[in-house]
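Researcher: I'm preparing a figure for a lab meeting and need a structural model of a single chain. I don't have an experimental structure, so a prediction will have to do for now. The sequence is pasted below. Please return the structure as tokens so I can convert it later.
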Amino acid sequence: MQLNPASQLNNTFAYPIPFNPKKQTAGLTFDNLTQDAEIKIYTITGAFVKEVAYTSQNGKVVWDGKDSSGEFVASDVYIAVIKNGSEKKIIKILVEK
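Model: Understood. Here is the structure written out token by token.
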């Protein structure tokens, strides 16, 4: 369990994948984040879904599976783009209901 932010994004990962927001009500966790990481979720076609608030800066944040309107996203493949000042990591997320 990560309690401190990572120094780089290269070991950042998300779980559980596939993610089912109705079964995994605790959400989808992004782990090994850097202190200044920004996480944005997009559809596979590039449409913006949501920016995940990362306020704890402890290396971990949870996405509830909802878009910026507060609605659960549809079953599909999504892209998480994670950036800090100098790095970028892309993680594919499968959401299924």
